[in-house]
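Problem 3 from the worked examples.
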Amino acid sequence: MNPFTGGCHFDAGCRKYRDECGSCPKLGSSEENDLSRQVWQRRQIAYGGMSSTQLQLVAPCLWVAEEVRRSSLLGGFPVTVIPYSVDVEAFAPRDRVFARNALGIPQEARVLVFAALNVSERRKGFSLLVEALTGLREDPNLFLLVVGGHAAVEQIGIPCRPLGYVSSERLLSIVFSAADLCVVPTLQETGPLIVIESLACGTPVVGFPAGDMPEMVRAGDTGLLVPSGDSAALREGIRTMLARPDRLAEMRIKCRHVAVGEYSLEIMARRHISLYEMMLERNQN
């Protein structure tokens, strides 16, 4: 969201960017003419020097596109949605027995994976996952993999392996392939690559409807979405998904199909080329 705010990357529901920022809650400020207002004003001058035909915006999902249209800075410019993509050869299903052996996970475990660059960032919802897991401690054979930095896993109450930051795409594909479910309880998001990476590895997703999650996580096909911020609903979503291993097996196939058919690098490149061609044709007329 940064290009159309007074500086924040995610507004956490503030919505002041729809006017002219100021009194920024991220800054803990009560001043109308604070840094966020000043940044907003500088951007207003910069964008104000362009006509609507001089700037074409690309958003990674419908939610961002709608926020752009509502913004006071960029609302007058055209915006096109082109989703993020991943290398679907690097992110591909790996043998589950091998993946679990490589990570030291019991073969009979029911494995969840959570991944974020910074696990402790509130927006990513790890604390909500921990709340959800408190009601699943009696469920047999649960195991949690955590990818990312700053993971506090002491109070989770189920077997857990923090893997830290993982930069290798091959290793990440092994992590996703070892899991039964990828849990994405993010509260605000543009387009979490982690979801596409999981789908490409054939792993269904359960989480909240943030950003482009509703576009990627399709009930009964690629996963399940529950009401945002509701840890109890997240718990039941996890339990419901894990209760049907036969259904999960079917969904793994659909996850891979959706990732390859809609979120490959080649498809994203073609969408950008089509946009450039449309812009050239528009400017020539």
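Problem 4, a separate protein:
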Amino acid sequence: MKERSSDTWRTAMAGAGLLAGPLFALALWGFAAGAPGFRHAMHPPALLGALGQPGATAWNLVGFVAVGALALLGVQGCYAALRRDGADAGVRIGATLLSLSALAFAAQGLAPLDLSRPLDVGPSRIHVAIWNAWWLAAAAGALLVARGAWRLPRWRSLLPVGVVVALAMVLALQTDLLPLGSGWRQRLALAAWFGWIAWGSWLALPRAAQP
């Protein structure tokens, strides 16, 4: 009975993780469609939630807070399954960093950009700091989990996935090697993160729940 209850909780948390990326994509598409002049190639998703923007509060609650909460549940479901399978300290630290990245993602909705002031002062400075905390924790966490999960048969695919995710985030956000607009590069980093959440959540599903 206890094992069945644990499987139910892991399934629920993994399901939440699988929903995080699709919800963000749908919210981004919907809110961007109603924002005059918004261009995906140039503008960050955070612009939709900037102070004074139409629908900013709704975007911040859905696009950041709700999506971040789903991602956090997915990470926790993944960690619970990893712990059950004998994860080592490195995996636990990595999972903690990935949980922090999900919390940071959600926190962006509580500290929106202020377009009336420079990015290095006021609320915008806090938002940028949270954004950097998000991707740094995500990249480091994905690598740590990948390294530790390699010895666990069920989780070995997290090694290539974690390396690709971390590399994509660094290349997209910290280099000019990709011939893309700044908006697309942010979206590439976000897609990499959501990809890790989805894959980790999928692996966390009890075998009976996987087709």
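Solution to problem 4. Residues 2-33 form the longest helix (32 residues). The chain has a mean pLDDT of 91.
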